[in-house]
Specification:
Layout lengths: L2 H11 L5 E3 L7 H7 L4 E4 L7 H18 L3 E4 L3 H11 L9 H5 L13 H14 L9 E4 L5 H15 L1 H14 L6 H9 L6 H13 L10 H20 L6 H21 L6 E4 L2 H4 L15 H9 L4 E15 L8 E5 L7 H8 L4 E4 L10 E5 L15 E5 H4 L2 E8 L23
Parallel strand pairs: 2-5, 2-6, 3-4, 3-5, 6-11
Antiparallel strand pairs: 1-8, 6-7, 8-11, 9-10
Helix pairs in contact: 7-8, 7-11, 8-10, 10-11, 11-12
Pfam families: Erythro_esteras
Organism: Mucilaginibacter aquariorum
Protein name: Erythromycin esterase family protein
Amino acid sequence: MTPEQNSKIASLTTPVQKTYSLKNAEDLDPLMERIGDARCVMLGEASHGTHEYYTWRTAISKRLIEEKGFSFIAVEGDWPDCYRLNRYIKCYADQNKKSHQLLQNFRRWPTWMWANWEVDALMNWLKVYNTGKAANKRVGFYGLDVYSLWESMEALVNYLQANDPKAAELAKQAIRCFEPYGEDGQEYARAQYSLESSCRQEVINLLAEIRKKTPVYDHDPEAALNTEQNAHVAVNAEAYYTNMVGFNDNTWNLRDTHMMETLQRLMTFHSPGAKAIVWEHNTHIGDARYTDMKRHGMFNTGQLAREQFGESETVLVGFGSYLGTVIAGKQWGATMEVMPVPAAREGSVEERMHRKYGENRLLIFDGNNDRYNEVMPHRAIGVVYNPLHEKYGNYVPTILSSRYDAFLYIDKTTALHSLHIKPDGNLVPETYPFNF
């Protein structure tokens, strides 16, 4: 047999290499091929304060928008704040301002998650991309999270007073019900724990009235969507806070259900052929069925997306790194700090990749990769972080090749560049397990 024949046989029997060097946006070609015609691409992060996670997600998002016609980016952020950015990048409002000025509206701790220069660069790019395009061709930017009860109620009152006086009265009734708790989610949660009066019926009545009146709000391209979404936030946030005191799995599931319902609402609004890019922590976008979350009866948006959109329509992309620096706080509400991220612990996903590659890599999982199909510790850093606790926490048992469809490994990372905005509010959300 000739050497050429031997080489041909070897190429047919040897598994195709599914790891790739990762140095620039052109190196994302294998990921673009893996995504194909999928309608929902979820981009994770292993912390909320790492520069490279934001810049690589931006690089992926730009290619998805330019090459595959994706409709919007939806993020793990509050609806009212993100909606202001959405209107800015679509040239509807605040054209006399700069995007970094609008990012200063992100006042709730941890402000650095969205009030940072990396997001500012993305907003500038999106605004330029949208300029001159028809309204239905402009790419949007939306928040999926559930925490903005008071901000959403305020936005509703301001809008409804001018456009729907009856609904505005219901919104004011709801606000009056919440007033004794001083915009403090924990105070409201404690009141429910001690069986004091609830505001649930007020927000349900408001949502019902708004859903009846949706056609009234169609004078603005997205007014109906914004009004109804703020009402959904009020209803779901009230339920979230009611369950918040005394951590239970239901708070996590309530939050991720809200985020998935919001994503579905956005897909419907943007037409049957809409395509969504989602930015959330790995703990939200990585399929929970392939972590220890499943054992606790918990699910997440990545799992729900695969189940509701279908696996062929959904691509989950995880991120991780070996060592570096990160922005976080030592406790909830603490001053943000640039902290060291120590070398990943032995036997973890990140330590194995460092030992094998020692450089940035893109991994594509196609069901035939057996290197990462066993349970391994996978690092997850939240907004509350202490590097000294690495040995005991911050790792989620994970079957990597099932939890994600692809994975970006960054060997060494650096901290996010915050706008250094002083936060307001003292809500401490219940999350699993380190404030994701």
